[in-house]
Amino acid sequence: MEKQKIEEFFYRNNAQVNNPIIKSFLSDSNNLYLVQKAILYPTEQNKKLVDESFQSHYINVRKIKYVSNLIYFFSLDFDKKRRRLQNRALLILDKGLSEEGGTTAKEQIEDASVGIELDHIVDGGLFDNIEDELLLKSLKKLTVKQLQILEMIYVKELSIKEIAHTLQTTPQNISNLHRKALNKLKTTLSKKGE
Fold first, then answer.
1. Other residues' Cβ atoms within 10 Å of the Cβ of residue 142
2. Surface-to-core class of residue 42, CB atoms within 10 Å of its CB (0-12 exposed, 13-18 middle, 19+ buried)
3. Angle, CA of 74, 25 and 54, to the nearest 5°
């Protein structure tokens, strides 16, 4: 009899019971017990206990929602400020020295070390397979890293992922350096070919 009375109450008030805030309220076994008690014994005291418990639950939900929104919007603002600061204070290695695809400071530093590491690449691999003098001269204008990547791709026949793993960088970085090297070669060869 009691169980049937409770089921009828929930059936009649199905729309209200399916409200997310009420669902979360009833998911607590203590609150469910208070509601069932108020349904079976509808005294003012039992109704008051349910009201007080629901008010407390509602206030807690509102607090959680407020703090959650606060954290969310604070993190958005923090990211915006951090990005703005990062874009405002770029490292010299992040900026290009010239406007139109010139070399960056990082590439110039790498170019300085070409003499040291170029011997390693010249001795075996990439330069041994090239007979065209024009192409050979153009290759010597590339950075060591670009030469390494070209050698790994065309001589050793490694994949982009394997090269990225070997050089401890991302595949995207390897693809970018490969594309830059090919563009430099194309530009140099087209200027000399004219």
1. 26
2. exposed
3. 90
Whether the predicted model's global pTM rises above the 0.85 cut? no
- 134-182 per-position pLDDT tens digit: 888 888 888 888 888 888 888 888 899 999 988 888 999 999 999 998 9
- Sort 89 into a burial class: Cβ within 10 Å, 0-12 / 13-18 / 19+: exposed
pLDDT in tens, 102-116: 555 455 544 444 444
d(CA 54, CA 47): 11
Encoding tokens for residue 32? 């469910």
**Alpha carbons 13 and 8: distance in angstroms, whole number:** 9
How far lies 32's CA from each of 18, 40, 81, 88, 146, in Å?
14, 12, 46, 56, 69
CB 113 within 8 A of CB 143: no
Cα 178 vs. chain centroid, distance in angstroms? 24
pLDDT in tens, 66-86: 999 899 888 988 988 888 887
* Residue 168 DSSP SS3: coil
Token duo for residue 54: 């629901």
For residue 104, the cross-strand partners are 96
Distance CA 183, CA 179 (A): 6
